[in-house]
Amino acid sequence: MTLLAVLVAVGALVLLISVVKLHPFVAFLIAAILAAMLLGRPMASITTSLNHGIGDMLGSLTAILCLGAMFGRIVADSGAARRIADTLIRVAGMKRITLALAASGFLVGIPLFYNVGFVLMVPLILSVQQRSRLPAVYLGIPMLAGLSIAHGFLPPHPSPTALVGLFGANMGRTLVYGLIVGVPTLLIAGPLFAHTLKGIVAKPDTSRPDSSSTSLHVPGVAASFGVALLPVALLAGATLLTSFHGMRPEALMAAAVAGDANVVMLSSLLVATIVLGVAQGRSASLLSVGSVDAIKDIAGILLVIAGAGALKQVFIDGGADVALGGWLSGLHVPPLVLGWTIALAIRLALGSATVAGLTAAGMVQPLVASQHVDPSLMVLAIGAGSLMCSHVNDSGFWMFKEYFGLSLADTFRSWSVMETLVGVFGLIFTLMLSLIV
């Protein structure tokens, strides 16, 4: 009965989002209440579980995600993201243009949320296409593969960050593992796959405004790269320091505090405000407007995460986590593959990578502890599954189709296959990494 309740609740979630078209937050709450009733929870305890789940999930994430959104907004508005991409393209030259575009998407994707990075980078892709006369899809897929991998694998993006908290993983270690898995995945799904797409004829809309243009002074190369990669450097550096043996306890404590995600994002935001904002002649009022807009951008994602927390807590309070753990353990499927598969199934049904990742994580969470799975690797496996098989229920599918003026068939052939390659090779390299760490 417990497993049936879980399946009914998840099925209801899928129907409410995909068929009824409810906002995922509302759908999560309805599914959580339905699950609580099916699990026989006392009516008086249902609201307690909902509040507890929402509070636990958002308590550790709200500051990180909001600070990350404001940080990314400054990187975008200052022109630093465009400077990074332009520099990499200029250094690489036209012979290695797809590698440069892939690297640009990956690096720019670290501080920027996916939709912001997409809208920001597409005009650059079209500009390069006009100068080089190379096919637009051939140029676009590598850069957008980089954005997608950063979105699915790397903190401080919402889904990986939420999964880190859910599994109790180390943020810095997850980032390092994500870079190890993400780079070879990007080379395959980006530049290598792009060579098969030269025959696709795109009719991009060149009338769209370049959202990355700015009338203010654009920061220099060193400032742009340094600030954009600062969170990565701080998280990775703190992780390496805390892994050294023989350090004094005081030094270990200082490194742990410096590597805390909240401290990292706050420090990065302050540096970005000074280096990319004040030093470039941007007024405090202009920076404040950007911060407000950034919070608006993240509000919907926070609600989705909150709803997932409510459903997860109902499962725990109703004993479904123990039943799920026992049932999933009996399937004799490697836990990382199982997490990837569940995320894939939900992604196919709903389209949203964030919802797919969070829902799958709530279901496989018992396995992480009971089977001693590395939580950082589980974050990557679920992230890979949540990116699989993008199709007509995914907003990214339609953004790519419309921006590049493609037919449905060519969008499936290029975008959908690229996302599937990211998911498949993301899992393969995660499994290979699990043999080493």
Short descriptors:
437 residues; mainly alpha
Task: Give a short synopsis of this structure.
The protein is mostly helical and 437 residues long. The chain has 21 helices and no strands.
3D structure, described in words:
The chain has 437 residues and is mostly helical. The protein has one domain (2-434). The chain is 77% helix and 0% strand. It has helices at residues 2-18, 24-38, 43-59, 62-77, 80-92, 97-109, 114-132, 136-153, 158-167, 171-194, 221-228, 230-243, 249-258, 261-277, 284-317, 320-329, 335-350, 353-370, 375-386, 395-404, 408-434. Helix 8 (136-153) packs antiparallel against helix 10 (171-194). The longest helix has 34 residues, at 284-317. The chain is globular and about 65 Å long.
Structural class: mainly alpha
Helix content: over 70%
How would you sum up the major sheet? Answer: none
Beta-strand content bin: under 5%
Number of domains: 1
Contiguous runs where pLDDT drops below 50 for at least 5 residues: 211-215
Order of helices and strands: HHHHHHHHHHHHHHHHHHHHH
The backbone outline, from C-alpha atoms, is: globular
What's the total helix number? Answer: 21
Work out the number of β strands: 0
Computed over alpha carbons, the radius of gyration is 21 Å
Distance between the termini: 38 Å
* Arithmetic mean pLDDT: 87
